[in-house]
Amino acid sequence: MSTGSTLLITFDGLRRDRATAELMPNLARFMAEGSNFVNSRSIFPSETRVAVTSTMTGCPPGDHGVVANQFIHPVRPEGLFRTAEWEDLELAAQAGQLLDRETMGQRMANAGRTMAVVSTATKGASRMMNSSAHDLAQPVFSMHGAPVSSPDLHEAVLARLGDIPEPGAPNGSRMTYATSALIEVVYPRHNPDFCVFWMNEPDMSSHRFGVTAPETQEAQRICDENFGRILEWWKAGNGPENILVMSDHGQITGRRQLETLDIIPAEFGRVAIGSFSSIYLDDRSDANKARVVDWLVQQDFCGLVFVTGENGEATAGALPWAAVRNNHPRGADVGFTLRATDCSQSWGPTVDSCRFAAWISDGGGMHGGLNRGELSTVLAAQGPAFRAGFVSETPCWLPDIAPTILTAMGLPLDGTEGRPLVEALVGEDPRFGIAPQVEIRTLQAEHRGHEQYLRQWVVEGQTIVDCGWTAGTGAWDR
Ligand SMILES: [Zn+2]
């Protein structure tokens, strides 16, 4: 066990306000007894593969370049670049156009440390947990087997635990199987300095049954029971020094499905439509961007709109991409969220709602946008590197996780954009235990009565998005 060795556990899609003592007693106790970051946030768009990549590079999407779950990428000139698909990611990797920043896997290899991944997520999300794992001979175990899993590890897990159970909803047997793989095979066999363990619940059940549905509560209980098994094993002296738990985003309730995905005039250019939608314009002039925004803000599905003018000029009715830290050359010219409830004053798992594009049914959970219910995540840690019984109110977000782990390991942070959460760290470093100053500001844009607001925190010069909402003719209940 090396100094700072860390196991990072993710509960996919868990809203912070659903991580209750009633539904997840082991997690609630862990949060209370360790360092608990009560103002933790996801990134934008609040989508899984973007979130995974931000976590593993310590950067927001504007720096790492995986700008959405689906977007337009030069390696797929005829269609959408789908980050859930191994093939698309492989194409981009071969072209050297997958990531602009180093991953935790590469950093561990450079430092002579080891990393492992155990994942129940999609092939694409599992790939982005350590995108060059196979080249670096770092072990991966995925429910999908080849090409995601390392063949020898996959065989070792199946030899010990039998065949991988079929997926279910809730996906309980797979959560339990993956937990066994982690503590019975991966740690005894590899003893990784850094290990990622990813549960794809409660995300899966929440999408299908709803954020507060009994099935989703059952999924949370199963996640928590398995988390309890990990804690018991860890407290008996096994595994890493430190455990961090996180969620990648929350979910809000999908209401009023769009009647069609064909909502953007074809003359504008190429599009990817979802909770977060992007338009890659044929005519990229500022005048045309203004024309497209003028049309968008009059549509009843339109939430917040993002555009960056040619020389950084503002466009009426839109906020700049930099405001959400998603300004990247592979990013869209115009992006927008689907309309959602105003989360500025009141929010909660039975309140937060949005229009939705497809593939769930009415009342199912959704994410991708800027509602507080989508952005508010779980982040907590225990171990010798972290303060015990510490509630941190300092805002933080997914890109801060890698710098924090690297700092606990004594490794360099160069190339990360996040901030090591020094206020929670224990040790000789004079920065440790001291919380930085935080400013709050609200950006706004208005056009044709469509108002949009974005609340940001500024921590040591870096902005973190708290949440965004619309009002006026852009209000939810119109
Ligand atoms: Zn997710």
From TrEMBL:
Signal peptide coordinates: none
SUPFAM superfamilies tied to this protein: Alkaline phosphatase-like (SSF53649)
Identification of the protein by name: Nucleotide pyrophosphatase
GO MF annotation terms: hydrolase activity
Organism: Devosia geojensis
Taxonomic lineage from the root: Bacteria, Pseudomonadati, Pseudomonadota, Alphaproteobacteria, Hyphomicrobiales
Membrane-spanning ranges: none
